[in-house]
Design a protein that fits this description.
The chain has helices spanning 13-26, 30-44, 56-67, 77-83, 94-111. It is mainly α.
Amino acid sequence: MAKTEMIHARVEPETKQAAEEIFRTLGISASEAINMFYRQVALQHAMPYEINTPNAETLEALRQAHAGENLTTWGSVDELIQSAGRQKPFGQPRCLTETSNVQESVARTSTS
């Protein structure tokens, strides 16, 4: 089918640059990306990604935060972490633990 329709849209320059950089990485033009988007909308009869709107509680929390109301401050990161009920910020990353266990296993096997 011939492409005869034109779309004109205004976007922020930073958004356009960031998106077009990704398109170049993917080897597609902005026009091809827009066509892909339109095809997905037509196929799914909806946006091709989930769009959520904040509920009343979230909207109120956002309003308060922007107004500087009901904010909690801490003297340090340690105080923040402690208030969240954690003793260590994040503990040891799992991948490091698993790597250590594998290395210990290999060391024991090779010496046996």
